[in-house]
Task: inverse folding
């Protein structure tokens, strides 16, 4: 494969620094680095300094937090998306944005290839590459973990030392887990988590306190929704990224958002991972609460029917596919009336809805729902024919069986 210039998704860590040097050596090409700030909470300037030290001339470090939450996380939450009943897709939803910027920078710089540090065992290679091909069909993709012979930690260290790549041996700072963080979540894999029977170590968690350490007094918050998106907290309007950042803080302080999951990867294996998604957990609960008041029954049920398919599309890397876009158009159309307030109590790992209201779009009619005298708003006698019609097929079947 002839490659003149490649755009590398670069974290500044050891693995992607080795990839940078390996690309230059293997393909005799120029490398452009791209580092995205999507709220991982790390200082990104060291990545710039490392890239400069390694001779990189074109370095892109971009703050994508608002685009990440506004254009990816919020649209996903409008569908109440959750994978296999537990996973809020924190890693999955970040990959299409990174793939988008990789190919945009490739076009901008005249590069003919992109590269990433995802391994050949995981989902991320699929997500990055499906996204890239969907947006730049003829792009060349270099996945070093599927190509090189640096298959052990020892070989990686030896390569780094041979080529003068700095290795950080700081004691006490290095986590034994493989971690991925952004504004929606932080994930943990590896270490003791590779045995599904072992409990995660207490000091592993970064964003949330243990339930046993949570405050004895609850935190009460109100979320304002407009067209299915949370736009204010306690009456104060905030940007999408600010909403999520604030909720991460208050929910994490109340022990909300931890998950310990064995999931089915797209590549075929089962994988055990632990996740912290404090703000996302609150938003999922609150969104369902405001939808319960403002969505037509059949629309709500249809959304619930389609949600697992939508979740799988995101998990498997098909964000840019025509079918995901089609589902998104339907989901977004359903959100026009999803406006109002949700009041929540955050307490010892629980997100408790204590109130919801919509002055413009509520379908809840107290005069019909009441157990008191409804003044003729609902004729209870109508229920008899409704029940008999719905029972007709079962009555026919029962009579046939008894014959």
Result:
């Amino acid at each position: 494969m002839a490659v003149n210039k490649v755009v590398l998704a670069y974290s500044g860590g050891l693995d992607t620094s080795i990839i940078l040097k390996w690309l230059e050596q293997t393909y005799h090409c120029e490398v452009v680095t791209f580092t995205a700030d999507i709220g991982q909470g790390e200082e990104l300037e060291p990545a710039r300094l490392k890239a400069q030290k390694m001779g990189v001339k074109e370095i892109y470090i971009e703050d994508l937090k608002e685009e990440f939450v506004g254009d990816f996380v919020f649209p996903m939450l409008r569908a109440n998306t959750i994978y296999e009943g537990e996973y809020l897709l924190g890693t999955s939803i970040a990959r299409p944005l990174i793939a988008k910027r990789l190919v945009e920078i490739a076009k901008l710089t005249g590069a003919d290839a992109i590269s990433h540090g995802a391994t050949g065992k995981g989902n991320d290679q699929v997500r990055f590459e499906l996204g890239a091909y969907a947006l730049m069909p003829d792009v060349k993709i270099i996945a070093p973990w599927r190509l090189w012979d640096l298959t052990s930690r020892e070989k990686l260290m030896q390569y780094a030392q041979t080529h003068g790549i700095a290795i950080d041996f700081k004691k006490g700072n290095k986590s034994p887990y493989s971690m991925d963080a952004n504004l929606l979540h932080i994930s943990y894999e590896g270490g003791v988590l590779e045995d599904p029977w072992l409990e995660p170590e207490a000091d592993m968690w970064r964003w949330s306190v243990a339930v046993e350490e949570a405050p004895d007094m609850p935190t009460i918050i109100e979320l304002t929704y407009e067209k299915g998106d949370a736009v204010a907290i306690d009456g104060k309007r905030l940007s999408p990224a600010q909403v999520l950042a604030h909720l991460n803080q208050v929910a994490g302080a109340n022990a909300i958002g931890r998950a310990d999951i064995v999931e089915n990867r797209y590549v075929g294996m089962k994988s055990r991972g632990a996740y912290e998604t404090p703000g996302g957990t609150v938003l999922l609960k609150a969104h369902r609460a405001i939808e319960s008041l403002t969505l037509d029954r059949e629309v709500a049920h249809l959304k619930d029917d389609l949600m697992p398919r939508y979740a799988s599309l995101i998990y498997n890397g098909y964000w840019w596919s025509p079918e995901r876009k089609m589902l998104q158009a339907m989901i977004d159309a359903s959100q026009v009336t999803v406006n109002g307030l949700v009041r929540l109590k955050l307490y010892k790992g629980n997100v408790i809805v204590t109130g919801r209201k919509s002055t413009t779009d509520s379908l809840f009619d107290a005069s019909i729902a009441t157990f008191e005298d409804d003044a003729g708003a609902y004729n209870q006698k109508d229920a008899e024919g409704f029940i008999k019609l719905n029972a007709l097929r079962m009555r026919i079947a029962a009579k046939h069986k008894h014959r």
